[in-house]
Design brief:
The protein is built from 8 helices and 9 strands. By secondary structure, the protein is of the alpha+beta class. The chain has a 4-stranded antiparallel beta sheet with strand order 7-8-6-9, with helices on one face. α2 (20-30) packs across α3. The longest helix has 12 residues, at 126-137. The chain is elongated, with a radius of gyration of 23 Å. 27% of the residues are buried.
Length: 215
């Protein structure tokens, strides 16, 4: 999966000269927690920074909620350039989605602007990545989701291609990972023969760690 498949394309871009109070109003109106700061370019907005709800809150008096109805009236008029983050991590639209997820985790941030050909084309957030994850492992039709252990030499695709059809089951999604030193496969199988499929998987020498019924 690529970043471009899951990023938010309708990204909100404000100018560096936008007053902080106006940025707060925009956050409240759009129900977002960050705004991209950019300037117009020949091909689109060029990134200059990013401002978060936390940045805005720090600029307000302690007795004023920056996302409240009075935020615009009582908020600071300094430009957002005075509070925005200027050293912003970015990612390309054709980058793998897992690279964006890793970037969010490693840098402890909630979103990354997506920049292509020097202009802002979107933003990828924690929520976007959660959507992708749910889509990848979520339900849809009768079947089962199984987590099982695998060895470093296992060909998981061949295993499932052999076991699944024997019980009228097909692979709907599959990914592998390493957790606490154990390599795992997580597969969502669609079809009516889930019990027989699980028994067959166990007989193949794999330890089944969890089973979730779908449908």
């Amino acid at each position: 999966m690529l970043v471009s498949m899951w990023m938010t394309r309708d990204v909100i871009v404000i100018l560096p000269t936008t007053p902080i109070a106006d940025a707060a109003v925009e956050m409240g109106r759009r129900r977002v927690r960050r705004l991209v700061v950019g300037e117009a370019g020949a091909k689109g907005p060029r990134l200059r920074g990013i401002v978060s709800a936390r940045d805005v809150a720090r600029a307000y008096p302690p007795d004023v909620n920056p996302l409240s109805a009075v935020a615009g009236e009582r908020g600071p008029r300094q430009p957002v350039s005075t509070i925005m983050a200027r050293q912003v991590k970015t990612i390309a639209p054709d980058a793998p989605l897992e690279d964006a997820a890793r970037m969010l985790v490693e840098h402890k941030i909630g979103a990354v602007p997506v920049v292509g050909d020097g202009v802002v084309v979107g933003i990828i957030t924690e929520s976007d990545i959660f959507r992708a994850f749910v889509e990848a492992i979520g339900g849809g039709g009768r079947g089962v989701r199984v987590t099982f252990d695998i060895s470093a030499t296992d060909d998981v695709v061949s295993l499932l291609a052999e076991v699944g059809p024997r019980h009228a089951m097909r692979v709907a999604s599959l990914f592998t990972l390493e957790h606490d030193g154990v390599r795992l496969g997580v597969v969502r199988m669609a079809g009516p023969g889930s019990d027989a499929f699980i028994d067959d998987l166990r007989r193949s020498g794999h330890r089944v760690l969890s089973v979730s019924r779908i449908g």
